[in-house]
Amino acid sequence: MVPVAGETTWSFMRRVAAAYGLEAADLLDGWVQANRVQRKDRGRADSEVLLDGVAQQQLAGWCRVPAGHLARALPSWAAGPETLPGRDGRGRVQWRMGALTWGPVVFGCGLCAARRSGEGPAWVYQPPWCRLCARHDRWLLEAGAGHSLGFVEVTGLSGELERAQRRWRRVARAAQAAGAVPREVFALARAVVCGWWEREEFWVREAVWGPRREQLVALAVRRGGDTADRGLEQWRLLVRDAVVFPEVVAVAKALLDPRLQERAGQDTGGLLRDRAGAEQFTAVLGARLGRPWLAEVDEAGPGGALALWVSAMVRERRGAPPLRGRGMWWVHGPHQPVEAAAVLRPAGGASPSGAGPAAARAVPQRAGHGKGLERWRAQLFDEGLEHARRQVERSGHLALAHTDTGIRDGFDLGRWLAYRRSVAALLSAGQAARLARLDAWWNPPWPVDWQRAWYRARDVVREHGPVHGGDNLDGLPDWLEGWLRHQIAHYQQLHEDQRRLLAELGLTTGEVERFHAWPGRRRPLGDALAVAGAYAARHGHLAVSQPTAVDGFALGAWLTSVRLRQRRAGRPTRLGRRLAVLDARWNPPWPVGWQRMWWTARHHLRGLPPGVQWWPDAADAEQALAWLRCQHARGLAAGQRRLVEALMEHAGEEPQWQPRISDDAWQTLAPVLPAPRHTGGRPRSERQILEAIVHIACTRQAWPDLPQALGPFLACRRRFLRWREDGTLVRICHTVLPETDRYWQTRLAAAARPPDGSG
Question: What is the largest CA-CA distance in the chain?
């Protein structure tokens, strides 16, 4: 068992125990615990355990990894012997909160952990600027935040996030050169950007974050997991850091720019609390971020973390002492971002999926006094609600896209609604009720584009009548037919309310079943790939014969058609590349049957990989090795020859031929054989001929490959055909023989069947 770089010691102990079929508590029972913690705290992902030298040596022995290697991989490993001196030769452990010492604890990528050590998932120490797994397009989430979700899929944004991570490395070096701590610079930049995230006036003008957020939320909802328990608003909080990460890096780079700092310091007019410098800095920052309106938005709202940083920066440049002993990179409490733990694990016993007072208390209080800001926000809400009412009068719903096409009368209602959905947990009961009266599904627990398509389908149904699955959806518009087919294909994954809405269109559960019962139904591409992936995971390859069917799906025929299309194209198709991920040799330039026999020989020689099973009609070890040696002696293509030579080093020397028929069995079978015919040629031994037939039946070799000790293959083959025709082989297979002869008798019975399959 090999640890993952940066893994917590507690996570590694859990995976070592799982490898032995144990619980981590079973390992702790043999050690003395220096401090006691509640049992519920042991299961937390952000917990840490320190081991003294004796316990470390025992753990290294269990995982078979030298202690020096573990010290390089586990950040908390060296703290154990320093904190816990050895006593009485017994191992000692001590519980800690690892996040307070070694940084945040995140859910490691389970696929990377399994690929490295065979067990997963792992909990690792990971800074907030290194949360992307570019290999698997995953944004890793922080552990101990009140949820079990380990990651968020960022397919489509992975490239942009990876480039931002590379840019941060340069920003971190610039921070060190300027005498700043990179962690503090990142925290301040994140506080500034998250402050924009919480402001409605920012979302009215913002055009980038909305599509990113909706894309990630849609991916998370489609993935499933605990979506129903968490709620769509909390999903949007979970994806926030992935959405704003490129802007956080850009803001951190701007904060370290000496030219911008100098420019902000010159415009203060000598007053440390003058906002002129902050406004000037925000204007330049908005131009860098591609948001020239940022200065207007920042001027309209109260001063935030950026304004306080400008004031602290000017104070430090002029030699004045920092306020309250804090430096210029300190983030004040009211401006610290709302974390997922504050909403997902609320205080006061509130439901983690609900939006109650605990969620409202999690919002940081802004600086200032009075109710002016609240009245101003209420006025903005009333203005947006009036535009929403007009939209309902026009179209009957509020499922608007978050694009520029939603602007009417100078107001972007689509972005206003997108922001309201993102902060729905913080809306007052009256505000939520007013929106629900306009459209009950203004904030559905599924993507808004689905709800928009449903409203469009409802208009068609009202005009032409309900849809029916029994008529194969004929007569519908192309877009509606395609959308309904997609809903039917994923009907089991739909939300209960989504099924109820589809029933209003006429597409009930019974109609879905009638649609599936339509003769000649073609399976969707996603289902075909799912069946192929399940077969490859179960058997280790996709060298499937054409008659093969899996769960009612003709997998062999489908793979054959895909192979033909790729060969006609002369290049790997998009579908072919997806199949190559499952099996790199799914479309070999030689017969698929040859590739299947190669896989058989490989698994017999090297053993079945974990979780892989034998497929139906797979050849046994004797047949596979005989086939492999025959291929080695033949002239093959270059690629086939390389595959065969890779296995021949494991095959060993070819064994000498040994008789299979025992003397007792021959005494029983001799009377069953017909009298030999004397044609004038050299007489043949009947037992030798039967041995030759049994050898071919057990090895499935071609007749020309018959060993020389069994005589000419032509005579043996003629006798085999004659005995199969006159029923001699059937009588041999039905004769009761000793237990040692049952194996070859079973193989002979399979070979004795006529070619047409009768008998």
Answer: 125
pLDDT tens for residues 566-592? 998 888 888 888 899 899 999 999 999
List, in order, residues 6 or more apart from 230 with CB less than 8 Å away. Answer: 147, 149, 238, 344, 352, 353
Torsion sign (Cα): 580, 584, 586, 587:
positive
- Residues 114/120, Cβ–Cβ less than 8 Å: yes
Query: Do 614 and 541 contact (CB within 8 A), yes or no?
Result: no
400: alpha, beta or left, given left = phi > 0 and alpha = psi -120 to 50? beta
User: How many other β-carbons are positioned within 10 Å of the β-carbon of residue 566?
Assistant: 18
The helix-helix angle for 555-569 and 574-582 (nearest 10°) equals: 130
Among the listed residues 194, 97, 146, the one whose alpha carbon sits nearest the alpha carbon of residue 347: 146
Residue 16: closest CA among 54, 49, 48, 61: 61
Report the length, in residues, of the chain.
Answer: 759
Under a CB-based contact definition with an 8 Å cutoff, are residues 708 and 692 in contact? no
- Going by C-beta distance under 8 Å and a sequence separation of 6 or more, which residues neighbour residue 725? none
Q: How far apart are CA 673 and CA 690, in angstroms?
A: 10
Q: Is the pTM of this model over 0.90?
A: no
Task: State the pLDDT confidence band at 497, using cuts at 50, 70 and 90.
Answer: very high
Could you report the per-residue pLDDT of 663-673, keeping only the tens digit for each? 888 888 888 88
Q: Using an 8 Å Cβ cutoff, are 251 and 189 in contact? A: yes
Nearest to 438 by CA among 378, 504, 390: 390
Q: What gap in Å lies between CA 595 and CA 102, rounded to an integer?
A: 51
Q: What is the mean pLDDT of residues 520-545?
A: 82
In Å, how far are 277, 304, 364 from 367, measured between CA atoms?
A: 19, 8, 10
pLDDT (tens digit per residue) in 229-243: 556 667 777 888 888
- Give the pLDDT confidence of 250-286 residue by residue, as tens digits: 999 988 888 877 776 665 444 444 455 567 778 888 8
Q: How far is 235 from 415, CA to CA, in rounded Å?
A: 18
CA dihedral over 292, 295, 301, 305, signed as positive or negative = positive
Express the helix, strand and coil content of the chain in percent, nearest 5 each.
Answer: 60, 5, 35
Number of Cβ within 10 Å of residue 219's Cβ equals: 19
Radius of gyration for the chain, computed over Cα atoms and rounded to the nearest angstrom: 36
> How far are the Cα atoms of 32, 253, 304 from residue 265, in angstroms, in the given order?
58, 17, 18
Cα→Cα distances 204→193, 209, 385, 416, Å: 15, 11, 14, 6
Helix (H, G, I), strand (E, B) or coil at 386: helix
d(CA 94, CA 49): 6
Cβ atoms 256, 180 nearer than 8 A: yes
CA 658 vs CA 197, 661, 695: distances in Å = 79, 9, 10
Encoding tokens for residue 531?
């069946």
Rounded-to-integer distance, Cα 548 and Cα 541, Å: 13
Q: Where does 130-270 have alpha helices with state H?
A: 158-177, 182-197, 200-205, 209-223, 227-230, 232-238, 240-255, 258-266
- The amino acid occupying position 192 is V
**CA dist 479 → 475, 482, 508, 518 (Å):** 12, 5, 20, 21
Q: Give whole-number Cα distances, 586 to 430, 506, 528, 612, in Å.
A: 59, 42, 15, 17
Would you say 529 and 578 are in contact if contact means Cβ atoms under 8 Å apart? Answer: yes
Do 357 and 384 form a contact (C-beta atoms < 8 A)?
no
* CA angle, 532 then 133 then 342, to 5°: 115
Q: Of 445, 359, 420, which is closest to residue 146 (Cα–Cα)? A: 359
Looking up tokens 């809306």 gives: 427
